[in-house]
Design goal:
Layout: H1 2-21, E1 36-38, H2 40-50, E2 53-54, E3 59-67, E4 77-81, E5 86-91, E6 102-106, E7 111-115, E8 118-124, H3 126-129, E9 130-134, E10 142-144, E11 158-166, E12 184-190, E13 195-200, E14 215-225, E15 228-233, E16 239-243, E17 250-254, E18 267-272, E19 278-280, E20 289-293, E21 295-296, E22 299-300, E23 303-308, E24 320-329, E25 336-340, E26 355-357, E27 369-370, E28 374-375, E29 385-392, E30 399-409
Parallel strand pairs: 1-3, 5-8, 10-11, 13-15
Antiparallel strand pairs: 2-7, 3-4, 3-6, 4-5, 6-9, 7-8, 11-12, 11-14, 12-13, 14-15, 14-16, 17-30, 18-23, 19-20, 20-30, 21-22, 23-29, 24-27, 24-28, 24-30, 25-26, 25-29
């Protein structure tokens, strides 16, 4: 019995020793060569000298990731920069690079090109072309206090814009169409009237957030999509726009960019007939406006149709003015503009007191004309409505279109 026990112990010891001494295979660790080291400025010079260029030898460039895909505003693209320049990396696959990553980019096999106005390294494989050096290396943005200070030298770099605000007409919108995943543009302005497009992907986490209506700052990447300069937001948390707006104060604005006739409290009211104002891009207006015509099915229809604003509080204004763009064609009664301080906001407008306002009318042939600033300082009250009144008969009628309606302080 002891012999059997000794034999078992011996066999266990042999097997155990084999397990201890055995080294399991490890996958080979790929070594990515460094080769000659270039700067991003060198890449710009190579493109200036040679145009589109494919790297065939061992070269590397060091940079820090300044904007990644985390917010959803970028996809298969990240921006990197070194001490002097920035560049876009177009990735073969999404993911793997994050804001603050200090990296070495192995250039062999990559394509250097100018894509729609920005310098780009194409077909970057993070596993084969990128070696991370460190993480959490934060890039300090270039501070710009006027949009006029932006230059091509800042393209693809992190920038902080100060003293900016979105156009008032954009402040009733979201950054993009989050429901249909459609990218959209909004427009920034500074206090001198310079403007810059803010481009947001419909897949961005903040696509459905409301555009802020104040003045302030934001951080992002200065970019370009020929021929337009654009600004790409990294994160909604980097927007700080709660200050008082500069420029003219706007009390009412309607541009129909949301393709809605009644949003904001506007009302289409039929006093007689059944002809309605409709949102349309017809009749020479490339952007949506509202159009009305009493001609349908080969004949005219008698009507009186009012398009009435929501109540506007002008009690604390100084010099309010009212203006809009208009166009018309064909013979018929002219469009009339009225203002009231006793309309109740619903029901038959003819029961209220209305005063007609004079304006610069289109000369016809759908030629667009601005009404000019119509002085309404005599109506500095809390319940002010303006109305566009269209009339047509059974024998004739014009077609009218209006757009960009606003009440603001005179400048």
């Amino acid at each position: 019995m002891k012999k059997y026990i000794s034999l078992a112990v011996l066999l266990f010891a042999i097997v155990f020793q084999g397990c201890v001494d055995r080294e399991f295979d490890h996958p080979p660790v790929p070594e990515i060569p460094t080769g000659n080291v270039l700067t991003i400025s060198d890449l710009y010079q190579i493109y200036a000298d040679s145009g589109r260029y494919t790297f065939k030898d061992d070269y590397s460039v060091y940079a820090v990731v300044s904007a990644d895909e985390k917010s959803g505003n970028l996809y298969k693209n990240v921006f990197v920069q070194d001490a002097d320049k920035g560049i876009d990396l177009h990735l073969l696959n999404s993911g793997g690079l994050y804001q603050g990553d200090s990296i070495r980019i192995y250039l062999k096999g990559l394509v250097l090109d100018n894509y729609k106005g920005i310098m780009q390294l194409d077909s970057v494989d993070v596993d084969k072309n990128v070696v991370k050096q460190a993480t959490d290396v934060q890039v300090q943005p270039i501070v710009v206090t006027s949009l006029s200070q932006l230059t091509d030298e800042m393209l693809c770099k992190l920038v902080k814009l100060e003293n900016v605000q979105f156009l008032f007409s954009d402040t009733n919108k979201t950054f993009a169409d989050a429901v249909n995943r459609v990218s959209e543009n909004r427009t920034l302005e500074d206090c001198d009237g310079n403007q810059l497009i803010v481009r947001t992907s419909g897949y961005a986490k903040f696509a459905g957030y409301s555009v802020p209506d104040g003045n302030g700052s934001m951080v992002g990447i200065f970019s370009k999509y020929d021929p337009d300069y654009q600004f790409l937001i990294r994160s909604y948390s980097e927007i700080d726009m709660n200050g008082e707006r500069c420029g003219s104060v706007v009390y009412l604005y309607k541009d129909f960019g949301d393709n809605s006739l009644t949003s904001g409290g506007w009302a289409n009211i039929n006093v007689t007939g059944n002809v309605n104002w409709e949102v349309s891009s017809s009749y020479g207006n490339p952007a949506p406006g509202v159009t009305i015509s009493n001609y349908s099915g080969g004949s005219h229809n008698a009507c009186e149709t009012w398009y009435i604003s929501p109540a506007v509080d002008l009690s604390n204004t100084t010099s309010p003015v009212f203006d809009f763009d208009n166009a018309y064609n064909y013979s018929g009664d002219p469009l009339k503009i009225y203002i009231s301080t006793d309309y109740d906001g619903s029901g038959d407008p003819t029961t209220a007191t209305w005063t007609e306002l004079n304006f610069n009318a289109s000369l016809g042939s759908f030629a667009w004309t601005n009404s000019g600033d119509i002085d309404i300082s005599a109506y500095k009250q809390a319940n002010v409505h303006v109305a566009f009144v269209y009339k047509g008969t059974a024998s004739d009628g014009s077609t009218w279109e209006i757009d960009n309606i606003e009440i603001k302080e005179a400048q």
